[in-house]
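Quick question, first post here. What does this chain look like in 3D?
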Amino acid sequence: MNSVPLRRFHYHGTAHAMSLQFHRPVDHLIEVQAATSLPTTGGHGNARVDNFRFKDLVSFKAGYSHVSGSEQKDGDKVFHTTLVTSVVEGLNLLDVVTADRIVARLSASYEFGEEEARILLLGSRFENLRILGCPVNVEFHHELFLKLDTFETIRKEFATNADLKKIAQDPFQSGHKQKPPEAHGVLLCSLVKEIQTNCPGVTRKGHHGLEIPKFGRIYLGEVLAEHSKRTVTMLRLELGSPVSAQGTVVQLSGNGHTWP
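> Answer (accepted):
Ran it through. Tokens below.
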């Protein structure tokens, strides 16, 4: 006689502080810094790297990440909660992009019987982000993302919400519009509501990107949304002449799902 498998929640949470691949002036892969991952059974983990430096190309004072997942009970209700954070302090990238602190934060809660976890990205932020010494003010659309706590909500709002369409329909303003996401599809968008800077020569590239002359492009607060999962990349780099590189600074993803 076959027994019915016990339905369990499988946690998911990963985070890292930095990962970069330089091609010019040197060909060098920087290993993933301060990376940690949450076991499917839940638990707690963290990683930290202090005083990182690669030549005079990139450095940070501290990079750390944290993951935790646990079961909580409220009367007859059972919740599975996940928290994932990633932080870099004292970032200096080629003396062009600097920041006192970059924080990504994801919290999620799943109640048995629901179709998917409810995921919030509150707390993600830039502190004293500067480009070429000029301040960059990045305002996140936290009010909107408070409503977009499930992928099903994102799918519904994509059809009618002007703010979400502005962020997600054509995030790179390339003329190639994203189609309405399917039930188990994926949508690329951004936490960014507005970017303000008076730095000479720096221009917007799409909704959440900036182009810096003779340096390249950076993308801020990028979100990849899927059913029961979000991936947040606070700083994505596409650098060109005279230094060529690509990579991420402060990235995380979570949550999980049940089986069977």
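The chain has a mean pLDDT of 94.
Helices lie at 142-147, 151-160, 162-168.
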